[in-house]
Amino acid sequence: MSLDGDKLLTTMTDDKGNTTENTETYVVDYTRIVPHPSNRFFIAYSNQSVRIHDALSGDNLRSLVIAPPIIERKKKVLGVTILTFRDYGKNLVTRAQWSGDGKWILILDAQAKSVSLWEMKE
């Protein structure tokens, strides 16, 4: 069994030597939308980001949490340049929501141990 991108790959070989591969797709991350109480804004958050958008235009007004960049490294193997990437892959956010009056944004970290508060200035 191995992990290949967004698929779980299982290779099985029967007693006659026939090999079959089964793949199962799974969701690693997805974006959730939380509307502002006035419906003028919305929060779009996933495991690695939190952004505030204008509800009418969809414009990103502010990014509150941003995933670290993926680092690209180049190395030569037998005269061929190979690119390697480092994906930090760490979850940063468990939940983001508006306060009841819409004046604050509450962000719960991935370990569910701390909350950050952001004041919404209109």
Characterize the structure shown:
Residues 1-5 have low confidence and may be disordered. This protein has 122 residues and is mainly β. Helix content is 0%, strand content 56%. It has no helices and twelve strands.
Which key terms come to mind for this protein?
disordered N terminus; 122 residues; three-stranded antiparallel beta sheet; 56% strand; 0% helix; elongated; mainly beta
In short:
The protein is mostly beta strands. It has strands at residues 2-4, 7-13, 19-25, 32-35, 41-45, 50-54, 60-65, 71-77, 80-86, 93-98, 104-109, 115-119. The termini are far apart.
- Estimate the strand proportion: over 45%
Principal-axes shape call: elongated
What topology, given as strand order, has the largest sheet? Answer: 4-5-6-7
State the end-to-end distance. Answer: 51 Å
Oligomeric state of the chains present here: single chain
State the helical fraction.
Answer: under 10%
**How much is the average pLDDT?**
82
Topology pattern, helix = H, strand = E: EEEEEEEEEEEE
Rg calc: 21 Å
Number of E strands? 12
Structural class: mainly beta
Give me the number of helical elements.
0
Largest sheet: 4 strands, antiparallel
* Low-pLDDT stretches: 1-5
